[in-house]
């Protein structure tokens, strides 16, 4: 059933191009984004004053990424919350709030409770869900499915990638309806979106190089991930992937926060993975990388293919192909998933079923 792959996680990583394509294709019609299941007219979309995104774990990270996309593209303010926090803090939900819950399983107890809390307070709730007919899918006002297919490995990969795509589509749709994205720019973003599956495949085919690199870190005690903007969101996801399956302590930091504490943890040889895909932030990131390198860190960078400056501050570089600046997480996550996977494999961990974790968290 693993189709020749050693683990479900590897198989599911390789299913990402398909999960991505299956999530965007049914929603692209004649050069426009059509999301019928949204159940929202253009007037409804114009009336949105605020978006709240609520989820757990990796799904929460896709919410964080999309905050930058919704705000940057559609200029709609976004709040992102962990479901376990949201549900207990008597959240303020004003008129014009669209609440989005994101969940692979559709059964996560805290996310479901957050949905119920928001509905009781009068919010319109949109679910972005992978499992058809799950509790969250049934209880949300509207459901936009991610078409990633069944995910078996506890560590999510393809569902995460499909969630990102669903959120990009929504942000692009909202931006277009609200007059922030013209026809021409929408069309060119759609073209860039369609390139993602092939680009993901290219990055997956780099796996042997990443495995060789990962094997150097099997005995690491701590590994850090840093980024800014969408790259901060992906740092959180890269760090979670690594720690949950390899049991190596790892933290992700907004790069600008290093100086406020974390930098004291950097020692000779500590691995710091820096993600820098936002051109306007290259300089800031490079100076953060130099700061940790000066203190002995070994710096791995994940950056765009045209970033020629990076080698000055990095010891090891993975380049990702050119895409829209809002889509880079979909590419940059691939080497980070592979890295976590191969550290786990190298250490002989139970990759698909890490200790103490369950695929679906139906109790809080
Ligand atoms: C991490 C992971 C978890 C889930 C989280 C939410 O790899 O899989 O962090 O993302 O438990 O689960 P769902 O999406 O089913 O609500």
From TrEMBL:
Domain SIS: 41-180, 213-354
Molecular function per GO: glutamine-fructose-6-phosphate transaminase (isomerizing) activity
Keyword Repeat: yes
EC number: 2.6.1.16
Subcellular location: Cytoplasm
Keyword annotations of the record: Aminotransferase, Cytoplasm, Glutamine amidotransferase, Repeat, Transferase
Record's function text: Catalyzes the first step in hexosamine metabolism, converting fructose-6P into glucosamine-6P using glutamine as a nitrogen source.
Subunit structure: Homodimer.
Name this polypeptide is given: Glutamine--fructose-6-phosphate aminotransferase [isomerizing]
Organism this protein belongs to: Dorea acetigenes
Range within the parent protein: 245 to 608 of 608
